[in-house]
């Protein structure tokens, strides 16, 4: 009887410890990402997946597209995803609301706006004054594309709410289709949509908001403080993989990057993917390291303030943790 009870106790202990090990491993190994949209703008993310950089770090990463910054942040706050790839401004909005569990930016992916100004008609040499009195198909109020767009227009002496007809009531996912169907004379588009419209004769890229608005922590991987506290090792491994991908993209040709990310853009021709990657590389859109920089952060605050979306300037240290990025860079240099 004693032997039988002892065996039962051992069996229970094995089951218990196995369960703990499974929980511990699962909590760090599985990470669910929600990206705000599917775009060549996020090429290093897809490279990290396709080249197995996450797997090298022992991570099982699941990617889903949660269209729109508001939907992505809702998914993060509700626990539907673990990590969000979205504009850094969303973390500021959460902080401004006095969240007990703030959202922390830990790895920057892009460092400029990724949209281009697309004109319906080709009118020769472009001048920003041509937008005066035009119908402009804008983005969601409070989102980075719209704020960076307004910031650029103001820099060129254009009041977006007085000098042109600004349309902002169209869902992010439907903006390109709305323009293609005849709405607006100008629109902001990400790649590869901008290049696709050029090929199809539906529009012409006349300017880059990325070049015009300067460096910004435009798209960043972020997570809740509580998740970061519980899964520091997983967040570090995640950041390591992103940095490997950033270095890979920076050291390979646009053709090689386009070929690698092609599985994520099955309906897009290779030449369009290549030209899109090339365009982003040429204007320095992809961040070379995951670290966020103070000067770019202050530029972000200026952009948000200009758009009337900032209650008060938020110190970078309040919603940014660069420790993971710095560790990833340091480990790679050894």
Write the layout of secondary structure elements.
Elements: H1 2-29, E1 30-35, H2 43-50, H3 53-56, E2 60-65, H4 69-78, E3 83-86, H5 89-96, E4 103-110, E5 115-119, E6 135-137, H6 144-155, E7 165-167, H7 175-180, E8 186-190, H8 193-200, E9 204-208, H9 209-213, E10 219-224, H10 225-230, H11 232-251, H12 254-261, H13 270-282, H14 294-306, H15 316-319, H16 323-333
Parallel strand pairs: 1-2, 1-3, 6-7, 6-8
Antiparallel strand pairs: 3-10, 4-10, 5-8, 5-9
Helix pairs in contact: 2-11, 2-12, 11-16, 12-13
Features:
D-Maltodextrin-Binding Protein, domain 2; 2 domains; five-stranded mixed beta sheet; 49% helix
Q: In terms of per-residue confidence, which ranges show pLDDT below 50 for 5 or more consecutive residues?
A: 1-28
Strand order of the largest sheet: 2-1-3-10-4
Give the overall shape. globular
What's the end-to-end separation, in Å?
Answer: 59 Å
CATH superfamily of the largest domain: Periplasmic binding protein-like II
The number of domains is 2
Subcellular location: Periplasm
Family: Belongs to the bacterial solute-binding protein SsuA/TauA family.
Protein name: ABC transporter substrate-binding protein
Pfam family, one: NMT1_2
């Amino acid at each position: 009887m004693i032997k039988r009870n002892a065996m039962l106790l051992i069996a229970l202990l094995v089951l218990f410890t196995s369960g703990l090990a499974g929980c511990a491993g699962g909590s760090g190994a599985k990470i669910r990402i929600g990206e705000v949209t599917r775009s060549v703008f996020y090429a290093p993310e897809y490279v990290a997946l396709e080249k197995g950089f996450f797997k090298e770090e022992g991570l099982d990463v699941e990617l889903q597209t949660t269209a729109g910054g508001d939907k992505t942040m809702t998914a993060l706050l509700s626990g539907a995803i673990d990590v969000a790839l979205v504009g850094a401004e969303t973390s500021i909005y959460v902080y401004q609301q006095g969240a007990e569990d703030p959202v922390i930016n830990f790895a920057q992916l892009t460092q400029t706006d990724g949209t281009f100004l697309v004109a319906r008609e080709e009118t020769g040499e472009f001048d920003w004054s041509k937008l005066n009195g035009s119908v402009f198909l804008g983005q969601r109020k409070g989102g980075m594309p719209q704020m960076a767009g307004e910031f650029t227009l103001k820099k060129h002496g254009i009041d977006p709410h007085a000098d042109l007809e600004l349309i902002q009531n169209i869902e992010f996912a439907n903006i390109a289709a709305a323009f293609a169907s005849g709405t607006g004379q100008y629109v902001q588009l990400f790649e590869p949509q901008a290049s696709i419209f050029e090929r199809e004769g539906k529009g012409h890229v006349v300017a880059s908001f990325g070049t015009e608005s300067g460096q910004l922590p435009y798209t960043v991987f972020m997570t809740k403080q509580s998740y970061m506290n519980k899964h520091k090792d997983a967040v570090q491994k995640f950041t390591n993989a992103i940095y490997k991908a950033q270095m890979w993209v920076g050291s390979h040709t646009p053709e090689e990057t386009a070929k690698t990310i092609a599985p994520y853009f099955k309906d897009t021709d290779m030449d369009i993917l290549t030209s899109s990657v090339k365009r982003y590389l040429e204007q320095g859109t992809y961040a070379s390291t995951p670290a966020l920089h103070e000067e770019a952060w202050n530029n972000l605050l200026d952009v948000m303030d200009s758009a009337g979306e900032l209650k008060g300037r938020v110190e970078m240290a309040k919603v940014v943790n660069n420790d993971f990025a710095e560790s990833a860079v340091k480990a790679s240099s050894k």
